[in-house]
Amino acid sequence: MKRCVKMFDKDFLWGGATAANQYEGGWQEGKKGISTADCCTRGSKTEPRKVTYKTKDGNIKADNLFGMEINDDVEFGCFEGYDYPSHRASDFYNHYKEDIALMAEMGFKCYRMSIAWTRIFPNGDEEEPNEEGLKFYDQIFDECLKYGIKPLVTLSHYETPVGLVNKWGSWSDSRTIDCFLRYVKSVGERYKDKVEYWLTFNEINCIDFSGWVAAGIPNQNSQTIADAAKNQLIASAKSVITLHNINPNNKVGNMIGYGIKYPNTCHPNDILKTWEEANEDYFYCDVQARGYYPRYKLKEYERNGVVFSLNDKEKEILKSGTVDFISFSYYMSNCISADPKVAPNQSGNMSFGVKNPYLKASAWGWQIDPKGLRIALNYLYDRYQKPLMVVENGLGAQDEVDENNKIHDTYRIDYLRDHILAMEEAVRIDGVELWGYTSWGCIDLVSASTGEMHKRYGFVYVNYQDDCSGNGERIRKDSFYWYKKVISSQGRDLK
């Protein structure tokens, strides 16, 4: 299992990352069912995304994606008159051969992608998988392997079957665990000779900030979140055990959204507050990597009146189903203040904090902190002593196509160069064991936080616009050629 990397060696997994609900499209092709992501409307910098549903009296409504508090008996779904960007996204469903060829041209060693659960089990609770969905991913994996690209597959990336939401509240109910395990076993057995790297839940810690996005739970009170978190953590552990039983060579990791948190001042109250907020991220990783609930979380539940327990069987499952490696997203850092007079004034990737006066920010207000990535790698490696992968990192920006059909995204190159240098220092100077790096949105996709195509991350421009216009043409950006050079030089040529 152990692979020692000195700087970036020939085994380092360079690549890119996407998610089915933001990239794939074809939302009703091949008998696919409706996912929670399919019910999320398009938004913008100033207009938040919403989730659509029908009330008992038949009225169609849409509520804020973040912080939903729906206590009525409603039915979630997709309704006429709303724009749902996941339905077409970047149309990878019909462009996968072209897109994977572009990844191969850049020299990808690894492609992090997700399987849409509802493409395999449309409602989530079927007894048998959907063969058309299984065949689609057979084609994807075969195309990747043709070019020597290793798939890194996320099993649940921000999309839960709406059928389970409407049936019993999805992850707030423990019956969802068995449905998920049926799905995991189906894809694990089907692709056991094609996929060896797996992730269980994408940014599992984001349940705390958006229960709908991460778990399909609209009632986001402390008890519901704790119940859903427990069910997902047990499902994650059982998935690790299942995938190891199917193929002992499988390497199964977790994935958290991770951003360094700095105290806003050296006041002890700020130090303590920063530690407390950092634990909100570490908690999920602690359970998945160490195999037990940490005392600080149990005491928090006790203080907040959350009813929680684990029986002996559940404790054994968590202990036996620890992950093989740690993966995480890193985009930005935040400062934390305990002073009630200092209000949070920046947010990004579902994290909130105080602006750092020493850092610049993107057009969307996400502060740029490459040195924070080196710190993050050291914090995680020191805490868990498990191999790491950076599976999301990138710059969302407004890219312009010039009169020569070119995109000169030097700002993206600068961002990525500085973060790759930070990774190199963590490996070479600090001795961190790092397996790979998959830049987020390697080909343009829909933004998860705002639902925009306008906010682009990729090395390849996709000609789809937020007004639903565009022909889907793929255009190589300047960063495409730069990243190709980075990979071919094993990260040594960053000019």
TrEMBL record:
Keywords: Glycosidase, Hydrolase
Top-rank lineage group of the source organism: Bacteria
Similarity comment: Belongs to the glycosyl hydrolase 1 family.
Name used for this protein in its record: Family 1 glycosylhydrolase
The organism of origin for this protein: [Clostridium] ammoniilyticum
